[in-house]
Amino acid sequence: MRSILIAIFAMALILSPVLGWNGELCSNIKYQKSIEAVAISNSTIYASCSYREIARSPGGLIGIYYLGTTAAYSLNGSELWEVNSGFVVKLVPTDDGVLVGSMGGLIRLNRTGNYTGRFIPRYKLYDFTLNGNYVYVVSGEVFSSKERKGALYKLYLGNLSPMWSLNFQDTLDRVRVGKVIYVGSGYPSGFAGNFRFGSVYGVSPTGKILWEVKLGEWVRDMEIWRGYALVGTGYNGTGHILLIDDKGDILWNQTLFYVEDILVEGDTAYIGGYKKLAAVDLKDRKVLWELKMPYRVKVLALYKGKLLAGTGEFKVENSTVYSIGTLYVIDPRNGKVLNKISTGYVRSLAVGNGLIVVGTGSNIFMVLKESEVLPRSICGPGLLLLLIVLGKKLKKR
Question: Does the keyword Signal apply (predicted)?
Fold first, then answer.
């Protein structure tokens, strides 16, 4: 009888979740804020809290300031450092620290949070990507329905010094490197505006515009597949996915939905967007499955064979903004929902080291152990071994 009780107790330990921890930034800020970027690298977790501050001058002019902070934490939740970083749109860990892309510019921080490089673009920074020893940065601004400006920069990763720059009469919001440098224009995921526009440009390694494909919808996200650009668009509740080669030819144009995030794994792309999630076969050019969701699918990640979909929305009641949403665990083969966790609006997501970091539409980010999120089989190896041992003990009696 005692062996059975021990077995039941051990089984409970195996099946019970291991709690993680929550982090909090911008606690003293009165404006609406959100964790727009998170990242994991080795033994460090990075998180950025971003917000807009609106200031009115005595003359009635309104100024909008894009502000925020970035902090680093140990895996157990101890804060290592925190710096002012502006409104951060992307974090990318490096060998000796982290690259922080804010709307005001790109900064490089070492492991102790000290600045080792800084680059300020001409317009708002919306995206950047690494390629070898170089960083490509895009920035843009919308001044009116007829006037838009943007720029593409190639920087040296070591100290973020510029190698070359290229000006556009367009608002650039995405950049990826494949067989050529692909640059998208529009409002990226997380932003919106009143004017309809959008293009994809091909740029040579030396900074020459090779071609332009006009889409007429904002480029919301863009990733690379076999050297080509997989583009997700959105405008007025609708959107497409397009596959564009290095010559500027459209190989595939599929009406889908308003796109927010693209994740490419092998020959499959997972597309998240307005209240929908889909998997597409890029080789055969077909939709494999599509799943309706209660909220906007803002961000995606693959972890240990499972697809994580961060969803949510901002809801306003009595002048108060509420962050509501759910983190879904999905079987990537068929779109079956395996688990869901109430988190609030998921604005950013990072995975690694047995952890899942969720940046929410408030000033809180959640660090979850994989055992809290990923479904586990009751016939796992630990439980199976336990039952074998128990069986042997019962036989001896």
Answer: no
Is residue 390 included in any domain, yes or no?
no
Burial (CB < 10 A; 0-12, 13-18, 19+), residue 27, is exposed
Containing structural domain, residue 55: 19-376
DSSP class of residue 232 equals: E
How far is the C-alpha of 216 from the C-alpha of 186, rounded, in Å?
A: 9
Strand partners, 277: 272, 291
Number of DSSP helices (H) and strands (E) in the chain, helices first: 3, 33
Please indicate, yes or no, if residue 159 is contained in any of the structural domains. Answer: yes
CA dihedral sign of residues 289, 292, 298, 301: negative
Q: Does residue 1 form part of some domain?
A: no
* pTM (2 d.p.): 0.89
Give the chain's domain count: 1
Q: pLDDT digit string (tens) for 51-92?
A: 999 887 777 667 889 999 999 999 999 999 999 999 999 999
Q: With contact defined as beta carbons under 8 Å apart, do 173 and 127 qualify? A: yes
- Maximum separation of any 2 CA atoms in the chain, in Å: 90
What's 276's domain CATH number?
2.130.10.10
Comparing CA positions, the residue from 222, 243, 216, 211 lying closest to residue 174 is 222
Token duo for residue 226: 């076999």
